[in-house]
Amino acid sequence: MADLWPLLDRAVRAGSRFARRLPGTVGGMGIYFSARHRLAADPERTDWREDVDALLARADRSLARGRIAAGLRWYDKALRISYDPSLHQAGSSPLAADPVTFLRALRDCATGTIMLRSAVPAASVPERPAPRPDGDRTHLLVIAQENWTFIRPLLDALRATGRFEIREIEVDALPDAGFPDRDRILRGRYDLVTTGVRMPTPPGVADGYDWADVVLVEWSHHVLTWVTLLDRAPRALMARFHRFEAFTPFALLHDHARLDRLLYVAPPVWNLARAAAPGFADVQAVQVGNLLARGLGPAPGEERDRHLLVQVGWRREVKDVLFTLEVLTRLRTHDPRYRLRLIGPGLAAPTAAESSYHRRVRARLAALGPEVVEQLGRREDVPALLAESGLIISSSRHEGTHESIMEGLAAGCPAVIRDWPDAADYGGPGTLYGSDWVVTDVEAAVQRVLEVTAAERYPAAAREAREFALAHRDPETVVAAYERALSADPAAA
């Protein structure tokens, strides 16, 4: 059966290329599917914009004929192509490169003017519950969908303070007709801006609003859009914003005025979000940190190979391990003791459809050989591996905080951090890490490594790395910042 998948994939691709020439709905779906297939095969192609324009024209025609549901479906197809992960998680993101140009067609078409430019009717804003009588603990309601990985350690720490009582709502566990699908969320946005009608609040959510002092939405994507469109309001609504959400269309679709405070972990991501979604301009925002998933660990020992570079996460194109491999190649012209340790899932078995980027990575790895580049795959003993290494490197095109860098610092690994190209215009990693750790290109990275790994310099650099992690990720400090941010008092943040 596995042998049939390539044949089926080729058949689907060929069928969609043919169907896009047909009139009506079949032709529109052909445009959509062929665009997605072509982007997956070649993220650098630019003709996707023509496909977006074609789908937006269909959306506008449907809307002009009073076929609202059809118009919104075509508009959503245009959004899905524009925000296809292949465009933003591979090489250079067109959204990060130029938000105004990237969003122009989506905003300026007739459907986009309604969806993204229309004001929310003031009369539609729901009343908030009366303040809850003062208690000795803050009632915090957390709403999320499936991915609780990052928030769970924080909630455990807040509970441990004794100052929070926390309830959780998993939206996928709501009864039937509780959490809507994407089509209904888009329709909810349309109905709100055109008629002032809001989406009904499920009873379980309404009960949570009555109980909570603060509602926190984890992940500011479609769940937050839905929450801001509901016909009930909590006493205070906050949300946590990660890198992922900046590269989804939902950052544009919230009723931003409903947000009392937004908690973000990475200034470059927040700056990009504000550039792309003007609705965020008036939202109060507070920078917070993350608790390291594996903790800070014990003080690192002195037995380590200072010539061993380490990178955690390298398979995806946005990680741009080719940058690291070029740095390594040049370092070895100075000293052949330099090696690289790659931690995380490796390349899949080669196929005819493999991207040109992955072919180049495979060729560079083969040229350097396993004695020079050690591929460890997914590991559970990452802190121990970091403690053996000499230096941690970030070669990415874009990141939020790049948590593995902070893990490396905690293990006493000095960092070499590329000035992430897609984040450089929004502050870059220098807003999170020491500016002298940030390098602009391969040659600057080579010089940074040579300087830091010099025998007389390395011990101090390793201590500096550990001290930075202790200062910025001490659990008590991180939790105290969240306590202030989650206060319903605007002045407390």
TrEMBL record:
UniProt-recorded name of the protein: Glycosyltransferase involved in cell wall biosynthesis
Superkingdom per UniProt: Bacteria
Organism: Brachybacterium sacelli
Alphabetized Gene3D superfamilies for the sequence: Glycogen Phosphorylase B
